Amino acid sequence: SSGAHVPALVIGTGYGGSVAALRLAQAGVDVHMIEMGMAWDTPGSDGKIFCNTREPDYRSYWLRTKSKAPLNYFLGFPIDRNIPRYTGILDAEDFSGITVYQGRGVGGGSLVNGGMAVTPKRENFGAVLPSVNAAEMYDIYYPRANAGLGVSSIDPAWFDSTACYQYARVGRKHAQRSGFPFVFVPDVYDWDYMKQEAAGTVTKSALAGEILYGNNHGKKSLQQTYIARAKATGRVAISPLHKVTSVAPAAGGGYTVVIDQINTNGDTTATKTVTADRVFFAAGSVGTSKLLVKLKATGALPNLNDEIGKGWGDNGNVMCGRANHMWDPTGSLQSAIPCAGIDNWAAGGAFAEVAPLPTGIETYASFYLSITKNPNRAQFSWNAATGKVDLNWQTSWKQPSIDMAKTIFDKINSKEGTIYRTDLFGTYKIWGDHLTYHPLGGAVLNKATDNYGRLAGHPGLYVIDGSLIPGNTSVNPFVTITALAERNIEKIIATDL
Ligand code: FDA
Q1: Could you give the percent of the chain with pLDDT greater than 90?
Q2: Rounded mean pLDDT of 173-187?
Q3: Are 353 and 341 in contact (CB under 8 A)?
Q4: HSE on the CB side for 109, CA within 13 Å?
Q5: What is the Cα–Cα distance from 162 to 168, expressed in whole angstroms?
Q6: What interface predicted TM-score (ipTM) does this complex get?
Q7: Does the pLDDT value for residue 215 go beyond 90?
Q8: pLDDT of residue 359
Q9: Ligand 1 contact via 186 beta carbon (within 6 Å)
Q10: Which of 438, 463, 476 to probe ligand 1 with, by most ligand atoms within 8 A of CB?
Q11: Which of 130, 267, 370, 376 counts the highest number of beta carbons within 10 A?
């Protein structure tokens, strides 16, 4: 409530925020988490908490009146549909040169993501987080993160036989025939549950196209892992539909935090002010960067350094589809949870997930989300005229990603005698180069903060999310975000509290 005082306030309930809350609470600190999205703990009139990718409804998008699917065309026709404006689960946030997809709600990105839980190869870690001791990460914090998130891998024998991964087996065959290493990708999905879905003994979830707008069973989001444990300490309170708009030094020490309470139409219904001894920015790469850039530019946090807003990257995301021959059907039943990828990172700078197209019909398409070593980095800046934060990414900056993805798919197409699909992102458009699922950076570790996430110039303020990571993790990012948060919060608890 307004006027309250809290020892630790955490902005956001994604990976970084959930790790911070759990570990602070275990250390005896009372924590208040502020989350702009909904709680996602109550079923709608259809009995389900989350809606399905095939029928996006009011629950699907964050304050939009039309859906904005990442794959926005099929057979050349636009597939987006009108929806009621609502504080839905997936935010397709538009900047001038890129749309950044993010989860909104208690659990952050863990509510909407594919659950692919990948630890980078150790030889690549030095390029991901150059100032961090790799031995500590691989001996202590990556194992801790994997355990905390509930990561496991698909049973290879089941993979070989189940109808729902035919699309991935086609992906494997094509990768291997072109000489590329094909690797299984661990996930937080409960694989035993998925086996039962395939056997028809439980309610279908991954096998019913549930992913992008939430997953009603099977996937362990942060609500089932870190947040459940944090709540069980009795020291963690969470306020959904509350958005932090300002943090500034308080007269008597600590920080004054201004919070808007919003309704499901996105309107502010109340504004609250609390003081906090410590504030943890865990609003995600975009959320934290937007807040810090604004607070520095408007003088609320004048001592932040000039690294604020810099070093932002898209993890090199680019999508494409390939058209298979009629003898290579990818299956009408496709698990929405990807489980494998093609690794050409060392030779070509690309790691491609073999992704599902869970349309429910045979498409003869292979679909891929590539993570590439794109070197371009963008910067957030305050636009005083609009009162908003801009990002200077340009669509043409995806060209290196396209070139790197082509090191895989040009070769496969040539070997298989196949072509790219041109009907998935518009008419005659091969590359999904307008978006990212993996925003990273904006408050980079050891630059905007010290080597543990303490913000320069304002003691008691910390960054503990994907904005610490300078633009690329070489694989899907959330395990690295979680492991880095585990490392940093351990140090902060040991030395600052
Ligand atoms: P995260 O974005 O998770 O959480 C930030 C939270 O802060 C959000 O809940 C937000 O609503 C809230 N917030 C923001 N501003 C606020 C404010 N001012 N006040 C209050 N709250 C505020 N990664 C991966 O490793 N494997 C995968 O398979 C995938 N797949 C995938 C699919 C899709 C569709 C998306 C969108 C993303 C992925 N990702 C992924 C990416 C992954 O989800 C992402 O990297 C992490 O969620 C980022 O974690 P953070 O803790 O940085 O922030």
Answers
A1: 95
A2: 98
A3: yes
A4: 32
A5: 10
A6: 1.00
A7: yes
A8: 86
A9: no
A10: 438
A11: 370
The confidence score (pLDDT) of residue 77 equals 76
Q: Which atom of ligand 1 approaches the CA of 187 most closely? A: 28
* Interval between CA 284 and ligand 1 midpoint (Å): 6
Q: Rounded mean pLDDT of 165-169? A: 98
Q: How far is the CA of 408 from the centre of ligand 1 (A)?
A: 28
Is 458 part of the annotated catalytic residue set? no
438 a catalytic residue = yes
Is the dihedral angle over the CA atoms 83, 270, 22, 304 positive or is it negative? Answer: positive
Residue 487 has a CB neighbour count (10 Å cut-off) of: 24
Cα(179)–Cα(411) distance, integer angstroms: 9
Q: How far apart are CA 110 and CA 15, in angstroms?
A: 8
> pLDDT tens, 389-400?
999 999 999 999
Cα separation, 250 vs 254, whole angstroms: 5
* pLDDT band, residue 426 (cuts 50/70/90): confident
Q: Is 475 in the pocket of ligand 1 (CB under 6 A)?
A: no
Q: State the average pLDDT over residues 342-366.
A: 95
Rounded CA-CA distance 72/66 in Å is 12
Question: Which member of 35, 197, 210, 353 is catalytic?
Answer: 353
Q: Is 86 in the pocket of ligand 1 (CB under 6 A)?
A: no
Ligand 1 pocket, 351 CB below 6 A? no
Q: What is the pLDDT of residue 367?
A: 96
- Rounded Cα–Cα distance for residues 402 and 343 (Å): 15
